[in-house]
Every structure is written in structure tokens, then in C-alpha cells.
Amino acid sequence: MCVCLLWGDGSRIEGGESVDASGMCAATSIYMFLYAGFHYFSRAHPSAKFDLLASTIYFGYMLIMSYGIFVLCGFTGFLSCFLFIRKIYASIKID
Q1: How is the chain split into domains, by residue range?
Q2: How do residues 9-62 score in pLDDT, each as one tens digit?
């Protein structure tokens, strides 16, 4: 998807353009972390008092999971662009 959008935008393919998709990966992981905070304070413990240890553990694990989603999404975008570019340039004959 990343390569197809960039293909129509500039009619060019370069190896570094998969980095442009990192904004989408960052937005996904930030949204996930912010929604976890919303869920924690509004639905999981709406009337309970603030517990520092439980909050630290919860948000620490959610930060790790958000970072994992960021890395996984970025790696998927990079790998798909990388394989697509190799497939296209493999079909070009150089005499």
C-alpha cells in the first residue's frame, strides 16, 4: 500500500520511501497508548483511588506493547517495500 501511494504521488520508487510510512506506524502506536490511558482511567478503575504501583505496571506494559506495534508496523512496511522493489528491479534486463 505504501509503495502504491508513493508511486502515484511521485512516479518514483526508492528504497528510503518506506520511512514515510513511519508516521502511520507512530500514529497507530500513539493512538493505542492513549486509548489504553482512557480505558484505564474511565473504564477499568472509574471510582478506585489512584494506585501508583498498578498504574506504573499497566502503563509500562502498554508502553512496551505500543513500541512493539510501532516496530512491527514499521518492519512490515519496510519489508513489503523492499521485496516489491527487488521484484521490480529483478525483471529489468541489463545488457
Answers
A1: 2-90
A2: 444 444 455 455 557 888 999 999 999 999 988 887 766 677 888 889 999 999
Q: For cell 508502553, what's the residue?
A: 63
What are 3's three cell numbers?
509503495
Q: How many alpha carbons lie under 13 Å from residue 71 in its C-beta half-sphere? A: 6
DSSP state of 15: G
Residue type, 71: V
Return the C-alpha cell found at 34. Answer: 492513549
**Distance from chain centroid for Cα 93:** 35
The Cβ of residue 90 has, within 10 Å, a number of other Cβ atoms equal to 7
